[in-house]
Amino acid sequence: MKTVFVLNKAQMGSGDESLGRKILAACLRKLVNSKDLAAIVFYNGGVNLVTQGSPVAVEIGLLRDKGVDLLACGTCVEHFGIKDQLLLDGVSNMDEILAAIAEADKVVTL
Asked: 63, 90, 93, 100 — which has fewest CB within 10 A?
């Protein structure tokens, strides 16, 4: 089963931001061991998670090294002006993002 996670903000859930960042880091650490994880899509504020200095930079590196597709929205990266800070080799686009979601058996938005 191919699973795609969607991260649209730099925390998990709403409410306390510090807690949200902490539980998101824990979630990403657990996802490193997932056999079904095909991709993670980052858009809007979520693209800040794949930048240098991100509180989850280690987890992003582990997921990248495992071969998980990490798709950062190019429009969002441009909007925030963070292209030169990315931990990824490049950015994605809406066609690639929609294809990953369409091909997934399950899509989870955090």
From this structure: 90
